[in-house]
Amino acid sequence: ILDTTIADYNMIMQRGQALIQLTNANVDVALHFAIVRYTREASHQNFVELLALARECFKREFGVYPYNTQMITIMLLSNDQLRLKSDGTIAKGIYAQIKTGEGKSLILSLLAAIQGVRGHRVDIITSNNYLAKRDALRFKRFYDRFQVSCADFKFEGSSLPSGGGAQIVYSTNHDMVFGYLACQLNGSPFFGNKRFDTALIDE
Asked: What's the rounded Cα separation, in Å, for the pair 43 and 67?
């Protein structure tokens, strides 16, 4: 799997050389059609093209390309084969050990965007409300390019979360747990029972 992932990364780098020449408008058009193609057919080739465009969009939004180790981490975490158990079933979760300063927020934002394109709802759980709000605001415009909505959630007690919420929600473990419990006690569905699909833990 690692050898295949590195080969795919080299393809992404080659594609990236061509994307550098495009205007922002043309990159957005290319991203739009890449999303359409991938949602119609989640093929290996379409996934590589989507990642190449995600990498280029991140550079144009934040002024820095994700490092090779960060891109490879995203690719590995997106690979369902890594979660395939010996009995043929798929494990519920996978983890990556990423040290402080090695780009957890960057990796999570790209991974969340890809999962959003795949149709998943993503809960990004961080350590405090300040970080949740900061990152939701920081990455919102980036997610918008993927046609994926984003918001932060803080449990206030008086207003219970309803509806599906944004496709990507930044929150804390405390807020999600107490929001869920409050909804259960009130007999109302937590975010319209449309959360707890994919959780990314930023700890």
From this structure: 24
Q: How far is CA 22 from CA 59, 84, 174, in A?
A: 13, 38, 44
CA distances from 141 to 60, 71, 137, 191 (A): 11, 20, 8, 23
- Over residues 176-201, the pLDDT tens digits come to 988 888 888 888 888 877 778 888 98
Section 35-57 average pLDDT: 95
DSSP per-residue letters across 133-164: HHHHHHHHHHHHHTT--EEE----SSS---S-
**C-alpha to C-alpha distance for 20 and 53, rounded to whole angstroms:** 10
- Phi then psi dihedrals of residue 169, to 5 deg: -120, 125
Closest CA to 107 of 73, 61, 140: 73
What digits encode the pLDDT tens for the residues 47-56? Answer: 999 999 999 9
Q: Which pair of structure tokens corresponds to residue 155?
A: 């449990």
